[in-house]
Design brief:
Elements lengths: L24 E4 L2 E3 L31 E7 L2 E9 L2 E2 L1 E7 L2 E8 L2 E2 L1 E7 L4 E8 L2 E9 L5 E5 L4 E4 L5 E5 L7 H6 L7 E6 L5 E8 L2 E9 L2 E9 L2 E7 L5 E8 L2 E8 L5 E8 L2 E8 L5 E7 L7 E7 L5 E9 L7 E6 L2 E6 L4 E3 L1 E6 L5 E8 L2 E2 L1 E6 L5 E8 L2 E8 L4 E7 L11 E7 L2
Antiparallel strand pairs: 1-2, 1-3, 3-4, 4-5, 4-6, 6-7, 7-8, 7-9, 9-10, 10-11, 11-12, 12-13, 13-14, 15-16, 16-17, 17-18, 18-19, 19-20, 20-21, 21-22, 22-23, 23-24, 24-25, 25-26, 26-29, 26-30, 27-28, 30-31, 31-32, 31-33, 33-34, 34-35, 35-36, 36-37
C-alpha cells in the first residue's frame, strides 16, 4: 500500500476538537475521497489521510488538487495538494476560530495566522523553509498590536495603544522598536503603563540601554537610573523621599553600593573588585560601625579580615576568614537592557588563624586559633571581670587539654581528653599554682 500523504495534527487534550473525525465528508477536486482514521493518544490526536480516487488502500500515484472537508455541511478544512504534499494555503475552522497556514511542497512557508471566531486576527508568525523566523505577534480585538516578541526582545501595548512593556534587543521585533529603544541614535523617552493605563515608569533609552529611568512607587519617585560614561547609577528612595540606596555598575559588574536607614543615616558601604566583594562596612543607626570586612591580597584572595563592634564603639571580634566556594557574601548585578537586576548570593565564611573576642566592657573573652574552620592549637578564655578562666589546647576541632582556674588564679582542674571528648584522669584539682 502506498501512503499518498500524511498530516500530523497536534491538539491539546483540554482543547475542543472536531478535527479529522469520521463525520467529515471530504472531496478531492470535487470528488468524494475517504478518510483513514488512526488511533489517538491522551494528549494529542494523530490522524493520517490517504487522498485518492478510490479508497485507503489505493495504489495509484499521489494526488494533486483541492481538498475540501465538511462537517454537517460546514467547511472545516481546506488544502491544496501537489504530488500528495501540501502546497499552498491550508485553512482550518474550529468553534473557537480559524487557522491559516501556507505550504511549499510539504514545508511550511510564509505567514501563519490565527483568527477568533468572529474572524478577527489574533496571532501571526512567519516561517521560512519550515522554521519560525522573526517575532510572534498577537493582536487586541480592535485590531491593534498587543505584543510582539521573540527570545530576546518584546514590546507590549494596551488596547488603546499605550505602551505596557518594552524589552529592547536586536533584531527589533517591530519597526517602532527602533525609535522606542533609541537604536536610531537619538535618546527616546517612553512611558510604561499598568493594565489600568496609569503611568508606572518613565524610561529614557539610547541604543537599547537605559540612560535614565524613574519608576513610580506610592506616588513618589522610588528608583532612578542614569548612565554616564559607561557607568550606570541606580538610586532608590523610600516613599518618604529619603535616600534608600545608591549603586554603581559598569556593564554587568556592580562596582559599589551604599544603603541607608529610613532615618537617612548610612547603613552600609560596599565595594567590589571584579566579582568579589572587596570591602564592606556596616553601621548601627546611631552611626557607630557594626562590621568591617576587607579582602586581604586583592580579588584573587579568599582571605578576609573582619572586625565587629558593639553599638557603643567597643570591639567585639577581631579575626580572619576564608571564603568557601559556592556561596557569595554580598551582592552582584547583571544588566538587563541597561537596568540593574540584583542577585543576592552568599559565601560561607570559615574562620582561619587567630580569633579574638571581647566582652562588652572591653575585657577579653577568648583568644583562639582556627585551621580550616576548626579550633586547632592554643586557646585562652577569660572571666568577664578579668583574669584567665581556662587555657586549652585543641586539635582538629576537639579539645585535647584544658587547665581551668578559679577567679583568684588558683588551678581548679587540669585535664586531658580522649579523641571522643571524654576526660582522661584528672591530673590535679585545687592546686595552689596560680595563673600567670
Amino acid at each position: 500500500m502506498r501512503k499518498l500523504f500524511a498530516i500530523l495534527l497536534f491538539i491539546p487534550a483540554v482543547a475542543e476538537s472536531h478535527a479529522f473525525t469520521t463525520n467529515w465528508q471530504c472531496t478531492l477536486n470535487g470528488k468524494p475521497t475517504p478518510l483513514c482514521d488512526q488511533p489517538n493518544t491522551p494528549t494529542l490526536m494523530l490522524r493520517q489521510w490517504d487522498i485518492s480516487n478510490g479508497n485507503c488502500h489505493d495504489e495509484r500515484p499521489a494526488a494533486s488538487g483541492q481538498v475540501v472537508c465538511r462537517d454537517g455541511g460546514k467547511v472545516v478544512w481546506e488544502a491544496v495538494l501537489s504530488g500528495g504534499k501540501l502546497n499552498g494555503l491550508e485553512r482550518e475552522t474550529r468553534s473557537d476560530g480559524a487557522y491559516h497556514r501556507s505550504w511549499v511542497q510539504g514545508v511550511q512557508q510564509g505567514i501563519a495566522r490565527d483568527f477568533d471566531k468572529s474572524g478577527k486576527l489574533k496571532q501571526e508568525e512567519a516561517y521560512s523553509k519550515g522554521v519560525k523566523t522573526g517575532p510572534t505577534k498577537t493582536f487586541h480585538p480592535n485590531g491593534k498590536l498587543e505584543r510582539a516578541w521573540d527570545m530576546k526582545g518584546s514590546v507590549e501595548y494596551l488596547a488603546d495603544g499605550k505602551l505596557r512593556n518594552l524589552q529592547c534587543a536586536k533584531p527589533v521585533v517591530s519597526p517602532e522598536m527602533t525609535r522606542l529603544c533609541g537604536y536610531d541614535g537619538k535618546p527616546s523617552t517612553v512611558r510604561l503603563h499598568d493594565s489600568a493605563g496609569k503611568v508606572i515608569e518613565t524610561i529614557t533609552y539610547l541604543d537599547g540601554s537605559t540612560a535614565k529611568s524613574i519608576a513610580k512607587g506610592e506616588g513618589k519617585a522610588a528608583v532612578t537610573y542614569e548612565n554616564k560614561g559607561g557607568i550606570s547609577t541606580r538610586t532608590e528612595k523610600y516613599p518618604s523621599g529619603k535616600l534608600k540606596s545608591v549603586a554603581t555598575a559598569k556593564g554587568t559588574q556592580v562596582l559599589s553600593e551604599k544603603t541607608y536607614f529610613k532615618s537617612g543615616r548610612l547603613e552600609a558601604e560596599r565595594r567590589w573588585d571584579g566579582e568579589r566583594l572587596a570591602q564592606e562596612t556596616l553601621y548601627f543607626e546611631n552611626g557607630q560601625v557594626a562590621l568591617e570586612k576587607k579582602r586581604r591580597g586583592g580579588a584573587s584572595s579568599k582571605l578576609v579580615d573582619a572586625r565587629t563592634f558593639y553599638d557603643d564603639g567597643g570591639k567585639e571580634l577581631v579575626g580572619s576568614y576564608v571564603e568557601e566556594q559556592g556561596r557569595w557574601e554580598g551582592k552582584r548585578s547583571r544588566e538587563w537592557n541597561g537596568s540593574f537586576a540584583y542577585d543576592t548570593l552568599w559565601f560561607s565564611m570559615v574562620p582561619e588563624g587567630k580569633m579574638q573576642r571581647y566582652y562588652e566592657n572591653g575585657k577579653p573573652m577568648a583568644f583562639e586559633t582556627y585551621v580550616k574552620g576548626k579550633l586547632d592549637g592554643p586557646a585562652t578564655y577569660f572571666y568577664e571581670e578579668g583574669g584567665k578562666m581556662t587555657e586549652a589546647t585543641w586539635k582538629d576541632g576537639k579539645r585535647a587539654r584544658a587547665v581551668t582556674y578559679e577567679k583568684d588564679g588558683s588551678v581548679k582542674s587540669d585535664e586531658d581528653f580522649y579523641e571522643d571528648g571524654s576526660r582522661k584522669k584528672v591530673k590535679g584539682k585545687k592546686k595552689t599554682q596560680k595563673a600567670h
